[in-house]
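Summary for the steering committee. The consortium agreed at its last meeting that each partner would contribute one worked example illustrating the joint modelling workflow. Our contribution is presented below. We chose a case with several input lines so that the handling of multiple components could be demonstrated. No manual editing was applied between input and output; the record is shown as generated.
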Amino acid sequence: SYVLTQPPSVSVAPGQTAKITCGGNNIGSKGVHWYQQKPGQAPVVVVYDDSARPSGIPERFSGSKSGITATLTISRVEVGDEADYYCQVWDSASDQAVFGTGTKVTVL
Amino acid sequence: EVQLVESGGGVVQPGGSLRLSCAASGFKFDEYAIHWVRHAPGKGLEWVSLISGDGESAYYADSVKGRFTVSRDNSKNSLFLQMNSLTSEDTAVYYCAKDRGSMWPNSDYWGQGALVTVSA
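What follows is the complete predicted structure of the assembly.
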């Protein structure tokens, strides 16, 4: 089955930039989506289709993709950005959606 | 305003069955696919199932295939997940989530979740 690999944790100081990577075989041919989940809450999509940002999501959140890696960048990090972040793709080979392993972002 | 409300969660014994429901409002229900996603305690998000807007196509994660069945009643703007042969591994908060409808399946609106606990 298709696997998406993320670093377990990323730590960043307020005002700095956090980068969360998501690696997967042939990820270049798939649309990548990113979700933010805070404890006890439902996930919220912060980036979809690689780099599109839903209305209401700050411009500080951006997505990119290069080679076998997709990246979520959070600029000017705020304390409120502390959460778990998951990448997700649709694997056409298996007709299944796949979530990444998840990254806990800690704001120091 | 788009709203998704899950119900039907609870405690069930191993080997038992449970049926989750998801009531939707605020969008044209039959035009959108709907996902089920679960979050087990201490673990990451896991996609469970997707059903097309017309209910004709359904897709499942390997971990639930053959045990879970997704269905929908477009006349009642409702979605269902029938879960059979439950094990402790199925203990999780289950979310229904509307698909955005863009080129690649992804979820733009989520319910608040329903807790399913499989325990003797």
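The first strand of chain B starts at residue 3 and ends at 7. The CA atoms of residues 14 and 87 of chain B lie 5 Å apart.
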